[in-house]
Every structure is written in C-alpha cells, then in structure tokens.
Amino acid sequence: MILISGCSDKKKITNLEYEEYNPKDFYEVTGRVIENRLSYHTPKTNILFYEYFLEKENPFRGQEENLKVHLNKGEKFIVLVHKKDSTISFFGYVDPRFKKESFEKVRKKANQTFK
C-alpha cells in the first residue's frame, strides 16, 4: 500500500466559511501572495492564491475568493490556520508592518536606480 500525503484544501470540500468556525480554533502565520486574478465565473470575483508556512521547504497553499483587498504577487499578509488541521486556512488581514516593509523595499530600489 502506498500512502501519499498532500495538502488538500478542505474548505472546498466542506464549503465552510470562516464565520462558521470558532475563531479560537485558529492561529496566525505569515502568508505570501502567489497570484491574484479574476475568476471565470459571473459575476467576476477576485481570487487570491497564497502560500503559508513559508519557512517550510514546501509551503502549504490556499486560496480565497471575493476579497475586498487587492494584493500583488509576493506581498505578505496574515493567514488564519486551523489548530487541528493546518490545511484549513483563511485570509486574515494585512499587517501594517508588511506594508511598511514593502514600501521600504520599493524606496530602496528606487534610490539605487536614481543614483
């Protein structure tokens, strides 16, 4: 018997929204945007593809639809991860420190370009 272990997104299977869980069942980790695109469904919605547990060799992946926030590839944010099943995750929020980090990187790059 061969056992293949992988990261499945159980929220797709269960169709549960974050609001249907107990908030105490989650903890926060840093995530990073892989891609942000429009869905093919009508009406068009925003789909955010992300990864979390960034320190792992193979970070976990997740996705979230209908977000009001638009993030670019590589931008960091807080992911809410289920304590008992780390394959269940949701977009949390954008930590202001991450925005400041992004701004500082862009500013340094611009300063180097115009020297």
Number of strands: 5
Proportion in helices: 10-25%
- Computed over alpha carbons, the radius of gyration is 16 Å
Question: Helix/strand/pairing class, anyone?
Answer: alpha+beta
Tally of helical segments: 2
Share of residues in strands? 25-35%
Q: Please write the string of helix (H) and strand (E) elements.
A: HEEEEEH
Give the mean pLDDT.
81
User: If strands are numbered along the chain, what order do they take across the biggest sheet?
Assistant: 3-2-1-4-5
Summary of the model, kept short:
The protein has two helices and five strands. With 115 residues, the protein is an alpha+beta fold. The longest helix has 18 residues, at 96-113.
Overview of the structural elements:
20% of the residues lie in helices and 33% in strands. The protein has 115 residues and is an alpha+beta fold. Strands 3-2-1-4-5 form a five-stranded antiparallel β-sheet, with no helix packed on it. It has helices spanning 10-14, 96-113; strands at 26-38, 46-52, 60-65, 76-82, 89-93. Mean pLDDT is 81; it is low at 1-8.
